[in-house]
Write a structure and sequence with these properties.
- This protein is mainly α and 595 residues long.
- Helix content is 60%, strand content 0%.
- It is built from 27 helices and no strands.
- The longest helix is centred in the first third of the chain and has 25 residues.
- It is flat.
- The chain starts with 10 loop residues before the first helix and ends with a helix.
- The N terminus and C terminus are likely disordered.
């Protein structure tokens, strides 16, 4: 009996399967109870006797290790949670399934005899879940439903690919199973499997007429991701064994040959991007009421899982087509440097002048050059001394003072957002603090730093990243300069704590036009006055800004939607629902005025 990861059925998976059996049966019993079907006492007594007889039969069958009576229930539940299970059931899960089935039969008899399923089943459900009976029997949130909800939460074209790619891989690996069934170990196996995918997976499927190998009937062509991995592994194994037999060259030279011939796999960067997509999907599942909602693994956990699956073979190599040595060679040739003239300082200068992607490749090239030193034939063509690892360009700006760092962390926690956005903001402030010192404009506070004009400073070695830094700094300054009051800060903190991203958080935008009103004091009359001001001649344009009025109306709708979140309504900070900003009379008056 194997699960999706080709391992024996674990205790965790067995518990998940039995919980799904219980959920299905309780949902059926609860539905029948709520239907309130009229039955005579004789009919009820006959049915109760039948349930008691079935329970006795199952007990006798369990003596003989015969689990055929519960086999179909368990197999169907296993398929629903993504754990293919074949008959006959082994005793390890069969006896537990019989015990559960008899317990369900007794529970159903109790309900037929006048008991309430919500009360009778509470003790049984408590052993499998912390949810109430109503929550436990609800239809689970499937991956497909969470995928659809994620696209609704992130409706832009730029996000569609970042969501679809990991969602398609999730369905390919797990099937369309309940999101709550995905454990941390499942995620480990998922990312290890993803690391084995060819870089061009799904692009040579042979289903279009432009592919020479297209089958005569494309509808019959069922090539899966596992097929692509198996083909790539088979081809790579043949190449590795062929090069392993070349006894006249070193392992370093063999690895160099392999890097050119092996099948490129997904890069760690792509895997991390898919991890971010998985994180959005899991949060969308929680938004749909998935309990318990899994949490996406951290980047470090993903890296460890992929590294742990690395075979102990000196010739093992994951080819990701970075070609780091080519990037270093190109940069060195442009600077007029030979390989033997390269040293730590010169390579650091080349990296700082390069683009972000080329800079990453140059940093990786150092490790490869150090590995090449193990081959005496290559040493005369390499730098005179071994090279140290270059400092991470994302963290090589000067450290902040305690005062600035403390204020920055408070501001970032109040604003909310993804960890990547917070890292970018920290780096921008660090770089600004460094160039401010170099320009003689040292500032002791975060407010002083944000008041500087970034374009007037000499960014020196940070010049390549200046535009990104300036964008992050302006966003921080705009957020900090809002007229915050205790009530607005509390509402902002409540929205952030409920997992709403800055993109869909209406508080900062509404605070900017609140005219001194507290959040609970916002009314429809105020909203319509703001709408009229934005659409009429104003300081921004004598023709009005209808686009800003539309955005304002969206933020009002998002504010009203916060009433659906108990964690926010409990703060008593929200105003009554405002509703439509522009009514029919206003639209008509606006049209007549334009005429």
């Amino acid at each position: 009996m194997q699960d999706l990861n080709n391992q024996t059925l674990t205790e965790e998976k067995a518990t998940t399967i039995l919980a799904e059996v219980l959920r299905r049966e309780l949902a059926r019993i609860l539905h029948e109870q709520d239907m309130a079907i009229a039955r005579t006492d004789e009919e009820i007594d006959t049915r109760i006797e039948g349930l008691e007889t079935a329970s006795s039969q199952q007990r006798r069958a369990a003596r003989r290790n015969d689990f055929s009576q519960v086999e179909k229930q368990v197999v169907d539940a296993a398929m629903a949670v993504g754990v293919p299970l074949e008959a006959p059931l082994p005793p390890a899960i069969g006896r537990r399934a019989i015990d559960l089935a008899r317990e369900i039969l007794d529970l159903e008899a109790h309900v037929l005899d006048g008991g309430d399923v919500r009360s009778v089943a509470a003790t049984v459900v408590e052993r499998h879940s912390g949810a109430s009976v109503e929550e436990f029997v609800a239809e689970p949130v499937l991956i497909s439903a969470a995928w659809k909800r994620t696209l609704e939460l992130y409706p832009t074209k730029s996000m569609k690919g970042n969501i679809d790619a990991p969602a398609q891989l999730l369905v390919a690996f797990f099937g369309d199973i309940p999101v709550s069934a995905i454990t941390e170990k499942d995620q480990d196996a998922f990312f290890v499997w993803m690391a084995r995918l060819p870089k061009k997976h799904g692009k040579s499927h042979g289903k279009n007429r432009y592919c020479r190998t297209a089958p005569m009937d494309p509808s019959k062509y069922q090539r899966t991701k596992n097929d692509e991995i198996a083909d790539a592994d088979s081809a790579d194994a043949e190449i590795i064994e062929q090069i392993r037999g070349m006894n006249h060259i070193s392992d370093t030279e063999k690895r160099a040959l392999l890097s050119e011939r092996l099948t490129p796999r997904l890069t760690l960067r792509t895997i991390k991007r898919n991890r971010d997509g998985l994180n959005r999907i899991l949060k969308a599942a929680a938004d749909l009421g998935c309990k318990p909602a899994p949490v996406a693994l951290s980047y470090r956990r993903v890296e460890r899982a992929v590294a742990a699956a690395t075979p102990e073979d000196p010739l093992y190599l994951r080819v990701t087509q970075l070609h780091p040595l080519y990037a270093l060679k190109s940069a060195a040739l442009n600077a007029g440097l030979a390989p033997t003239e390269l040293d730590q300082a010169r390579i650091l200068a080349l990296r700082d002048k390069a683009s972000r992607s080329d800079g990453t490749k140059i940093a990786l090239a150092l490790r490869l050059m150090n590995e090449m030193r193990s081959d005496p034939k290559l040493v005369p063509f390499l730098p005179l001394r071994p090279l140290r690892r270059l400092p991470d360009r994302r963290r090589n700006a000067g450290d902040l003072t305690d005062c600035v760092a403390r204020d920055l962390e408070w501001l970032l926690s109040l604003r909310g957002g993804a960890d990547s956005s917070k890292r970018a903001a920290r780096m921008a402030v660090r770089a600004l603090a460094e160039v401010a010192v170099d320009s003689g404009q040292n500032q002791a506070t975060l407010e002083g730093l944000l008041r500087l004009v970034p374009e007037a400073l000499d960014w020196n070695r940070h010049n390549n990243q200046m535009q990104c830094y300036v964008k992050d700094l302006r966003s921080l300054r705009t957020f900090r300069d809002l007229p915050w009051t205790p009530a607005w800060r509390d509402l902002q903190a409540a929205i952030v704590s409920n997992g709403i991203s800055p993109r869909y958080n209406p508080a900062p935008a509404l605070l900017a036009v609140s005219e001194g009103l507290e959040p609970a004091g916002l009314t429809q009359a105020w909203a319509r006055s703001v709408d009229w001001r934005l659409r009429g001649p104003n300081a921004l344009s004598r023709h009005g800004r209808a686009d800003l009025a539309v955005t304002f109306a969206k933020n009002i709708s998002r504010l009203d939607a916060l009433h659906d979140l108990p964690g926010i309504t409990a703060t008593v900070l929200l105003p009554p629902p405002i509703g439509t900003v522009r009514g029919d009379s206003e639209r008509q008056a606006s049209t007549e005025e334009k005429r």
